[in-house]
Amino acid sequence: MSVEFVEKKRWLFLGLPFTFTRYVIKEDMITVDTGVFTKVENDCYMYKVQDVEHTASIWERMVGLGTIVCYTGDTTHPKLLIEHIRNSKAIKEFILKESEEARLKRRTVNMLDIGSGEMGDIDDLQ
């Protein structure tokens, strides 16, 4: 079963979709289409998404919108903004789940040592 979200960037004025930015979020990639006269299409693979943040200003909440910030390892968009969209919380959860699954499929999961303290201090090793 293939899940796909297609959203348009909206104005904060009544949440009207009068912009020329379209977001397509699929299981394997995020595509951002912008422009009227010069069309620009930018893709980011899901396995490159490292962290996701959801924000909603008071104006966005009043019209049922939100903004998603994806921190990625992509060179063209290290901080990919998906601005002023509907269903933003559901899309954020979808991106989190699918990016984790994509990393597991490609075996690109990074393990970080967050300093649990079990190994002792670095002074103890010297």
From TrEMBL:
InterPro entries: YdbS-like_PH. Residues 20-85 form the YdbS-like PH domain. This is PH domain-containing protein.
